[in-house]
Amino acid sequence: MHYENVELLAAGGEGHALAKIEGKVIFVKYGAPGDVVDLQVVGRKKKFSLAKITKLHKESELRREPFCEHYGTCGGCKWQHIDYPSQAKLKDTWARDCLTRIGKVEVEETLPIVAAEQLQFYRNKMEYTFSNKRWLYDNETLEELEHTNALGFHAPGRFDKVLAINKCWLQDDKGNDIRNFVYEYCIANDYTFYDLKDHTGLMRNLMLRNTKAGDWMINVIFAKKEDDKIERLLKAIQEEFNPKALNYCINEKLNDSTFDQEFISYSGDFEIQEELGGLKFNISPKSFFQTNPVQAEKLYEVAIDFADIQPTDVVYDLYCGTGTITCVAATKAKKAVGVEIVEEAIEAAKVNAGINGLTNVEFLAGDMKDVFNAAFYAEHGKSDIIITDPPRSGMHPKVVDYLVEIAAPKIVYVSCNPATQARDLAMLDAKYKIVKSQAVDMFPQTHHAENVVVLELR
Fold this sequence. Notes:
The chain is of the alpha/beta class. The protein folds into 3 domains: 2-62, CATH 2.40.50.140; 86-119 and 277-457, Rossmann fold (3-Layer(aba) Sandwich), CATH 3.40.50; 125-275, CATH 2.40.50.1070. It contains 10 helices and 23 strands. It has helices at residues 84-102, 174-188, 227-241, 293-307, 324-330, 343-355, 368-371, 374-380, 397-406, 418-428, and strands at 2-7, 10-11, 17-21, 24-28, 36-44, 49-58, 107-114, 125-131, 150-154, 162-164, 203-210, 216-222, 245-250, 263-268, 272-276, 279-283, 314-318, 335-340, 361-365, 385-388, 410-415, 432-440, 450-457. The strands form 4 sheets. The chain has an 8-stranded mixed beta sheet, with helices on both faces. The protein has a 7-stranded mixed beta sheet with strand order 10-9-8-11-12-13-14. It has a 6-stranded mixed beta sheet with strand order 1-5-6-4-3-2, with no helix packed on it. Helix 1 (84-102) packs parallel to helix 10 (418-428) and helix 2 packs antiparallel against helix 3 (227-241). The protein is globular, with a radius of gyration of 24 Å.
């Protein structure tokens, strides 16, 4: 179905723009509020349709020229075509709307969004995939290619196709040098790239991590054990870049997950170390760590400021990951207790506490809905403040119910998905009032934002 001269009204779900035609909701890919466009519907759901722009009659005042050559193809950084002040404003509005429209909760004070200063090259971790079946860009034909090998990102909606990436603007530019070097070395030396359907080939994944101080970790994931080729590639990487940590892994499984695989140190240290809030944190190949460390510091500053921790307070940190917020809280509290489902993350959290000389922290591994209960409360003591930072799906209903039951005086809820945060806040609304709310932009050029609220007992 085709529509003409449609004005796009607002920012909608998944970074799309929103249009309404004859009462129907249409999300428009790569649109901007204020555009006047012709649309072609490319997908239908029960409550909305998805469309693409076929002609742009009038450009929104929010528009700018995207800076990345892969924009519109790789599926990332969907808001490059919107100027940054407008991005921040749209995210701020979205976070506020989630609380009032989805949660239908009242907020006593909403502070302006904490915008990002670094708009490019802000991530500290990138993962790339090798494939012998690359995705063709619009200006390419199969016949003109010397080969079909690629190192880059999965094409949107295609697990078996990979986009060849020349320059990515998300991680420090040295990451582009490393990725391109590895790719060119493998091509020049006839290394086989992984076939994502047949599960053949040697080269599987490349993971790059770096710190604010400029230390780099290079992790190469191979699909099988070919000692001579593995040694030659790793030696070439070491000689070219001399990274702080160079590790490798042999993943012979059918899926790319490496959380159950062993990484082996080839040269340098096994880990790198980042500093946040005056504390040091070790990062291993498999560590979960905030991918924008500069904005993460600002996020934690908001959370700790909202918590207003006193020296006599006992603080629970739910969904604590590797204990970053727990450790920061422990510098101000009588005791901090972190809980996380991933056992390896808890072990890392204990190490991080030790590195920083913190003796007033405790960590527990377990599924939150199973371990956050009366027995936990009896063992660790009455909490004065609870900080919760759940995954995008939000908190399990059992966890929300127990929060209501124990009635801690204060809850600080840090969320990477304001929509599920709003749902949880609605369940807490009878017991708690929302005193403050503030969004933090962790991911410029995307529609994603974090939101922090502080709740107090009514």
